[in-house]
Design goal:
The protein has helices at residues 2-15, 70-83, 92-113, 118-133, 147-166, 170-175, 177-184, 193-202, 208-227, 234-242, 249-255, 276-283, 290-299, 301-317, 343-347, 349-353, 357-374, 380-407, 412-415, 417-439, 446-465; strands at residues 35-36, 52-55, 90-91. The protein is mainly α. This is Glycosyltransferase RgtA/B/C/D-like domain-containing protein.
Length: 466
């Protein structure tokens, strides 16, 4: 029932009174499906949501050779577009319908796998549904970006991990790979989920060989995804981040192996007219790798502190403030943003006022989860929630680190979408973990704990034999 309610809420939230979404062209990702969006030339692309994409044969135009698991969702949307009566070859509103229904499925599954009384389970699932419905994330569901596929798949990954940790069977372990691969393959920087998921699968009593096999498979595909992607854009990481307002630009360029004569280009983007005079010299110089940039941060702590600060501001921002939510003709100003549901956005005012509270939330969540895992009086299902509380901040921190390294301060809020979602998920998960710690203060004797563990193992073996 909870899943059905949230599936309906998402449809109403996205479409009632006119559809809303998120402007932008997702790095032109749908072009890989033979689609194009010839937008109004007077607009830059960030003002209005433009859902209709038409069939187009790309011959000489720029269509980046990029693969993403989001293409599977967009291909499904392309098939559904005529069935739902939408115009064009792909209408992003079809994606909104599908993703909204999938959010309901996630909420329904959470009710089934989260421990506690029915009211507690329904409350936790509704908190997750409210997160997807919040204005900070709902717009992605009607957009050409890769984020909606990753965000919805991450919800299924949470469900799968809770099932594996509660009772680790081979089918459950293998089934975890499906949402994991959808998340990892959505964007190159989501490769940070590889070690996190590997750790989560190995943090399972028994079945370690199967878990190791699945973890290795995911790791191999994740590395392949990164290697086959386009090269690292050092311009954003160096010129628009490290050299931004940098009084020692020439020396820092030399430390990075770049031409110090490029120091006057510090802070310039490729769209700046002044960059033209530096473009040729930039292309003829050696370009640092991500490892070289990471080494620079390790030896220049002041730059590291600055960049981490920009990253925390990106997580605290939660929602890109330059991407519109409404289509053209909706009677809204250019770049106008909707505020239909803003519960998490309102809570985030605390983090906007103090971005350093973001890592505090990570630490509190992980600490509460560790206490839950260590408490002997809790059931396997309750301890699974504790493991989730430990893994979520780890995933958020890993994703935060790679976004800071690769994108720096360029469109930080949008690139931190997954980090922000994981951080927001910490709120309901931490609440459950803290509740479990406070309501189960009486420890169980060690001999009784061993007896219960043996009984649980024998029960699992009987089920497998059956």
């Amino acid at each position: 029932m909870v899943g059905v309610v949230w599936a309906a809420v998402m449809q109403v939230r996205l479409f009632l009174g006119g559809h809303v979404g998120l402007a932008g062209f997702g790095e032109n990702l749908p072009c890989r499906l033979g689609l194009a969006n010839f937008r109004n030339p007077a607009l830059a692309g960030w003002e209005h949501v433009q859902p209709a994409w038409i069939a187009h044969t790309w011959t000489g135009e720029s269509c980046p050779p990029e693969f993403s698991t989001a293409l599977f969702a967009q291909a499904a949307g392309k098939w559904l577009t005529p069935l739902l009566g939408y115009p064009g070859a792909l209408d992003l509103r079809a994606l909104g319908v599908v993703f909204g229904l999938l959010v309901g499925v996630v909420c329904g599954l959470l009710v089934a796998v989260v421990p506690g009384r029915p009211l507690v389970r329904a409350g936790f699932a509704s908190a997750v549904g409210l997160l997807y419905a919040d204005a900070a994330f709902a717009g992605y569901l009607i957009s050409p970006h890769a984020e909606p596929t990753a965000l919805v798949a991450a919800g299924f990954l949470v469900v799968a991990l809770l099932l594996v940790w509660e009772r680790p069977t081979a089918p459950r372990v293998v089934a975890t790979a499906v949402p994991a691969l959808l998340v990892i393959g959505a964007r190159p920087e989501y490769v940070t989920f590889v070690p996190v998921i590997a750790f989560a699968l190995l943090w399972v009593p028994g079945r370690r060989i199967v878990a190791l096999m699945v973890a290795t498979w995911i790791a191999g595909l994740g590395v392949f995804h990164v290697v086959t992607e386009t090269g690292f854009d050092d311009h954003r990481a160096v010129f628009q981040t490290i050299l931004h307002d940098d009084p020692t630009a020439a020396a820092d360029l030399a430390s990075l192996g770049l031409d110090p004569a490029l120091a006057p280009a510090a802070g310039l983007s490729r769209d700046d007219a002044a960059w033209v005079s530096f473009a040729d010299r930039y292309h003829r110089t050696a370009h640092p790798s991500p490892l070289r940039v990471a080494g620079f941060y390790a030896t220049h702590p002041w730059h590291l502190i600055r960049t981490v600060g920009w990253g925390l501001q990106g997580v605290a921002g939660l929602r890109p403030n330059y991407l519109g939510s409404y289509p053209e003709g909706a009677g809204k100003p250019e770049g106008g943003q909707e505020h239909r549901i803003t519960v998490y956005s309102a809570i985030w005012e605390v983090f906007r006022a103090g971005p350093l509270l973001v890592p505090v939330l990570w630490i509190v969540t992980a600490g509460a989860g560790w206490l839950v895992v260590r408490r002997r009086s809790l059931t396997p299902s309750e301890k699974a929630t504790g493991r989730l509380a430990v893994v979520l901040p780890g995933a958020a921190l890993a994703q935060f680190a790679v976004v800071v390294l690769v994108h720096g301060r360029v469109e930080t809020v949008r690139h931190m979408a997954m980090t922000s979602w994981l951080t927001a998920m910490c709120l309901p998960v931490a609440a459950v973990a803290v509740t479990l710690v406070l309501t189960r203060l009486r420890p169980v004797p060690r001999w009784q704990h061993r007896h219960e563990s043996c009984a649980s193992i024998h029960s699992q073996m009987d089920e497998i034999k059956g």
